[in-house]
UniProtKB/TrEMBL annotation:
EC main group: transferase
InterPro entries in the cross-refs: DTW, DTWD2/TAPT
Pfam families xrefs: DTW (PF03942)
Biological processes annotated in GO: tRNA processing
Domain of life: Eukaryota
Enzyme Commission numbers on file: 2.5.1.25
Keywords for this protein: S-adenosyl-L-methionine, Transferase, tRNA processing
Family: Belongs to the TDD superfamily. DTWD2 family.
One GO MF term attached to the UniProt entry: tRNA-uridine aminocarboxypropyltransferase activity
Reaction catalysed by this enzyme: a uridine in tRNA + S-adenosyl-L-methionine = a 3-[(3S)-3-amino-3-carboxypropyl]uridine in tRNA + S-methyl-5'-thioadenosine + H(+)
Protein name: tRNA-uridine aminocarboxypropyltransferase
Length: 289
């Protein structure tokens, strides 16, 4: 009988135990005042260079939500929290009050249906999704927080099944994404309480943004940086300023006034992880010679 060739893995950082990241942190876990929510593409989860694992180990107030491509259809329902209710266990305003909106998208993020009843823009009923993004409903949702429920079709073993997920978006959330409506940290005129970050290749991030249209309703934050990613030689970046997820989080939190020491420590761990990958790459090349 053959023996298993699987390498022992660290259950915390999901790296092989010989290059475990857990003991590389020089400072305690950072109790970040601005929470971080990472929307991670499902195919990014097990990538050896995925940097979300460092954020998970280094930040106390952090959540990770997995996102998969919409290849058929997805249905979204948005519910606003009551002022006295917070979190998934809070009290929701019921649909009859007009504080729930639902819509469906097809492949490539195209809106196929939209329940626009009770959604008002400047006192008039809105007639499309783009107007809904700027509606009083979403202003209310931003101020109080909301929950996004998503049901989408996926194919398993040749059969189509519905997959359901639910995500809480706290009051004061911003999306780190360089859209046309994005502004720099110095232009934000409210207290940022939660930073939402898309984790995936640039192509995957753009697709997640398109296939989750509710993201467009959030204030958008951009970072005008000329920095080259520490990924360097081991993973392609489209151009300067396109950073890894952990680098993006660190620089955004710094810009929002978070403690620098603990954040810099996470970049040190990331640099060491990239160094591991570079050495592995060099070893493979030398063995091939």
């Amino acid at each position: 009988m053959g023996t298993s060739s699987k390498r022992p893995m660290c259950p915390s950082c999901s790296k092989p135990t010989r290059i475990c990241l857990c003991n590389r942190f020089k400072t305690p876990i950072l109790d970040n005042s601005v929470a971080v929510t990472i929307l991670q593409h499902i195919l990014e989860k097990d990538h050896p260079l995925n940097s979300t694992r460092i954020a998970v180990l280094g930040l106390k107030n952090l959540g990770v939500e997995w996102v998969s491509d919409v290849n058929f259809q997805a249905h979204f329902d948005i519910r606003v929290f009551r002022e006295e209710g917070e979190g998934k266990d809070g009290v929701f305003i019921d649909e009859s009050s007009g504080k729930s909106v639902n819509f469906s998208i097809g492949k490539h993020g195209l809106i196929s249906s939209f329940n626009r009843e009770m959604v008002l823009v400047n006192g008039k009923e809105n007639v499309g999704f783009d107007g809904f993004v700027d509606s009083r409903f979403m202003v209310d949702a931003f101020e109080k927080g909301f929950v996004v429920k998503k049901v989408h079709e996926r194919e398993f073993d040749g059969e189509s099944v519905n997959v359901e997920s639910e995500m809480e978006v706290p009051a004061g959330s911003v999306l780190l994404f360089p859209s046309e409506k994005a502004v720099g940290p110095e232009e934000i005129d409210f207290e940022v309480r939660n930073l939402i970050v898309l984790d995936g290749t640039w192509a995957k991030a753009k697709r997640m943004y398109k296939e989750n249209p509710w993201l467009k309703s959030l204030p958008h934050l951009k970072l005008d940086l000329d920095k080259l990613s520490l990924y360097g030689e081991v993973r392609n970046q489209p151009r300067a300023g396109y950073l890894s997820t952990i680098e993006s989080i660190v620089y955004a939190l710094k810009a929002l006034g978070e403690n620098s020491e603990g954040l810099d420590g996470m970049l040190d761990v990331f640099a060491s992880m990239v160094g591991d990958q570079r050495r592995c790459k060099d070893e493979r090349l030398s063995m091939a010679d």
